[in-house]
Amino acid sequence: MPPRWQASLLNVAGFQLGWFGCVLMGAWAGGAIALAVIVAHLRWLAKPGEWRWLLGFLLAGVVIDGSLAALGGYRFDPQSPSLGPLALWLLWLWPLFATLIHHSLEWLWARPWLAALGGLIGGPSSYLGGAALAGVELADWLLPAQALIWASLCLVIGIGLRRRSG
Q1: What is the DSSP letter of 47?
Q2: Does 1 have pLDDT greater than 90?
Q3: What are phi and psi of 81, to 5 degrees?
Q4: What confidence score (pLDDT) does residue 164 get?
Q5: Looking at the 3D structure of the chain, how many domains does it have?
Q6: Taking the complete model, does pTM exceed 0.70, yes or no?
């Protein structure tokens, strides 16, 4: 494993590569990039058992974004490969986010309320940027809902990891 600072930079770079790949290239090419990033992460950067976090976030993405899509929160290109109402490229972003939790975002979880603020701002910002680049229409209510979801999710991660370590 590379030194900690290099591992954090590789972690962020991998996430960004996967995020832009999914948003700009869609389910197949973007999914292949995301999968390559995830496999490389698991091979060279992951801590033991970290695959559980990636799988858990994949499942959370199915439930959370799948529910929001079913409620009309997103209007995807009808040609985009999907899992029910959810575009597959969006689903890949969940395990990609999970690659950050124990690495480049590790410092944040010791401050759960700061993590919640990060989720409050960063979550909907990511969806807004991704939607603009991918040509996805968002319902008026979606970004406030995403702000609450991601603030809550990041708060729970912060509290949970703080209890485990402390």
Answers
A1: P
A2: no
A3: -55, 140
A4: 83
A5: 1
A6: yes
How many residues comprise the chain? 166
Q: Answer left, alpha or beta for residue 135, where phi above 0 means left and psi between -120 and 50 means alpha.
A: left
d(C-alpha 20, C-alpha 43), whole Å:
22
Type of residue found at 108:
L
Q: Which residues contact 18 (CB under 8 A, 6 or more apart)?
A: 30, 33, 34, 37, 38, 92, 93, 96
In contact, 112 and 54? CB cutoff 8 Å: no
The region of weakest confidence among 29-33, 148-152, 162-166 is 162-166
**Token pair listed for 65:** 């974004």
Q: Calculate the CA 120 to chain-centre distance.
A: 14
Mean of per-residue pLDDT scores for the chain: 96
**Structural domain for 36, as ranges:** 4-165
CB-based contact 108:115 (threshold 8 Å): yes
Q: What is the pLDDT of residues 31-55, one digit of tens each?
A: 999 999 999 999 999 999 999 999 9
